[in-house]
Model the fold of this input.
Amino acid sequence: MRPSKPNPRRGVGASLFWDLLTFERLMTNQVIHLIYWAGLGVIALIAFGFIGTAVGVALREELFMGVLLAVSVLVGGFLVVGALVLLWRSFCELYVALFRLSDDLHAIRQAADAEHSVRAPPPPPQR
Done:
């Protein structure tokens, strides 16, 4: 995609709206940031669920065994949440890398096309 050209007749809001309608500006990075933070929010809810489960197990069982079970649920839950955070981060970084690769390949193709059009051989002489 070519960079958007500022139009002095349009305002900033109208220019942004027009860029979005015509795909002059891609919103990939902003959307991936929103998806990343939304995913972290879901993972935080899962973590609170593990905490609630551990407290519930500890309150339901009055013996020492209930507390021991609650601690093991809490530790296991935090290990699962840590793994989910790492996987989610790597998943989002993969998408960012793929989109950046696409942008780089597009720039390389434009440069190669420009070089090819400049270095095009002259047509053969006609007899």
User: Anything to note?
Assistant: Residues 64-118 form the longest helix (55 residues).
